């Protein structure tokens, strides 16, 4: 009996302390609905100091910001820019309608993939400081709502690519959604190879842009994809270095967690590879030799920062490398477009006719 009395006293003390507990300030999806006194004789009644919580209705005025968060708007913006760069580098003449369809379609495809990724990773995002405030983790949007948003984005995006560009561009968009959501996302839990798969995902947008313009995957498209692929490693590996506690706590198999030495070596290797890839562009007549010369200082400095990251293996060197990659890629894309090899009128018309035939196939009788 004394034991039971002691338990009751402890429970009362525990209840009493609830008045000192403040709700997590970022948990906007819950609200305090009062501290109404309840009659003690009611069966199952809450203690006087207990807080009653309930879900808050979606704020329609904030839906735009919620959808931007689900889409990872900054990442999607970068994806769209690389898609536009791919279109600009192709040999066919500019078609504004196709360019707009290609850009918006790729953006919607990216938004869909990012949303599905967040739906799958809610249990793990809640354990990471970097992602614990995402709207699905906080309950601002329900999973069903997010699924509907992703479905609408993917369907609309692929249709825009198919009808506004061509079937090849639409196929690449669909493949990228599947690659990101069904292969890359689950692989993060099991193997460090996820980084290589994720780099393929990042290399596909310029292919979508190029094929939207020409209707084919030419050599130049693969060079652009190679540059995007190589860039992912110094970019992501330096980012993940300072997120090791988060990734480890959430159970992600990242190079920076399971093999830190390999993480730094890979970042350095692919930084060096950028020099070769940028030199390859004029060799195959995608750009003039000006591009190889102008891009060399950027790539040398990228390699230098990657070497410092490899040697020092600290947060300062990784942060410097990461920040420079954000400048490096747009600069390389801009230099590539400026140094684009201008084809003759006949070659341009041939490329345009191929693109138009892809958009408007005819049936021969």
TrEMBL record:
Segments crossing the lipid bilayer: 135-157, 163-183, 190-208, 220-241, 262-283, 321-339
Pfam family, one: UbiA
Subcellular location: Mitochondrion membrane
GO cellular component: mitochondrial membrane
Lineage: superkingdom: Eukaryota
Family listed: Belongs to the UbiA prenyltransferase family.
NCBIfam families found in the cross-reference section: cyoE_ctaB
Name the UniProt record assigns to this protein: Protoheme IX farnesyltransferase, mitochondrial
Organism name: Petrolisthes cinctipes
Lineage: Eukaryota, Metazoa, Ecdysozoa, Arthropoda, Crustacea
């Amino acid at each position: 009996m004394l034991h039971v009395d002691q338990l009751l006293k402890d429970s009362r003390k525990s209840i009493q302390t609830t008045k000192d507990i403040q709700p997590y300030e970022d948990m906007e999806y819950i609200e305090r609905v009062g501290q109404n006194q309840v009659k003690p004789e009611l069966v199952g009644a809450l203690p006087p100091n207990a807080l009653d919580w309930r879900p808050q209705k979606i704020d329609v005025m904030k839906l735009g910001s919620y959808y931007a968060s689900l889409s990872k708007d900054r990442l999607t913006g970068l994806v769209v820019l690389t898609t536009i760069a791919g279109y600009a580098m192709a040999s066919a003449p500019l078609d504004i309608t196709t360019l707009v369809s290609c850009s918006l379609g790729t953006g919607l495809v990216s938004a869909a993939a990012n949303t599905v990724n967040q739906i799958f990773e809610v249990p793990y995002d809640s354990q990471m400081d970097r992602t614990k405030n995402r709207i699905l983790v906080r309950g601002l949007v329900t999973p069903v709502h997010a699924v509907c948003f992703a479905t609408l984005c993917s369907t609309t995006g692929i249709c825009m690519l198919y009808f506004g560009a061509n079937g090849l561009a639409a196929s690449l968009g669909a493949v990228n959604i599947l690659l990101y959501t069904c292969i890359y996302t689950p692989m993060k839990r099991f193997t460090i190879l996820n980084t290589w798969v994720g780099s393929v995902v990042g290399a596909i947008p310029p292919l979508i842009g190029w094929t939207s313009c020409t209707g084919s995957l030419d050599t130049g498209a693969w060079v652009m994809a190679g540059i995007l692929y190589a860039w992912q490693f110094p970019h992501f590996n330096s980012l993940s270095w300072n997120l090791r506690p988060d990734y480890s706590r959430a159970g992600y198999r990242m190079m920076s967690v399971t093999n830190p030495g390999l993480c730094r070596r890979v970042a350095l290797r692919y930084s060096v590879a950028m020099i070769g890839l940028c030199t390859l562009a004029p060799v195959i007549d995608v750009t003039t030799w000006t591009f190889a010369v102008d891009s060399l200082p950027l790539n040398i400095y990228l390699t230098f920062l990657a070497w410092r990251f490899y040697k020092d293996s600290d947060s300062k060197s990784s942060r410097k490398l990461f920040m420079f990659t954000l400048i490096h890629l747009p600069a390389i894309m801009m230099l590539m477009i400026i140094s684009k090899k201008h084809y003759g009128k006949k070659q341009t018309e041939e490329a345009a006719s191929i693109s138009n035939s892809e958009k408007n196939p005819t049936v021969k009788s």
